[in-house]
Specification:
Blueprint (H helix, E strand, L loop, with lengths): L4 H37 L3 H10 L11 E3 L5 E4 L19
Antiparallel strand pairs: 1-2
Pfam families: LRRNT_2
Keywords: Leucine-rich repeat, Repeat, Signal
Protein name: LRR receptor-like serine/threonine-protein kinase FLS2
């Protein structure tokens, strides 16, 4: 009688690896979007209002002034032309 034990274990290992990779790759961008929003909340209210009008939608990589790499990590933030009073540190942005 043939043993299916080894191929069965390999199948589940590959399935687990693929699913854990898919979930982990989605968490970095969501953490970075959360970091941007927390940073925005720490700014003066008039600056928060302006950023709210610029940063609409769920995908932070499409927000005005935000540039991301293919993985969804923020690589550049350019808000100079809006003459905002910006301060603070965003430690959760790993690629910035």
């Amino acid at each position: 009688m043939p043993s299916f034990s080894i191929p069965f274990k390999i199948f589940f290992f590959l399935l687990f690896f693929a699913s854990s990779h898919a979930f982990s790759s989605k968490t970095i961008p969501s953490r970075e979007a959360e970091a941007l929003l927390k940073w925005k909340a720490s700014l003066p209210s008039n600056t928060q209002t302006l950023l709210s009008s610029l940063w609409g939608g769920r995908d932070h990589c499409n927000w005005t002034g935000i540039t991301c790499n293919n993985a969804g990590s923020v690589t550049n933030m350019t808000l100079r032309e809006f003459e905002l009073k910006l301060s603070g540190v965003i430690l959760s942005l790993t690629m910035l």
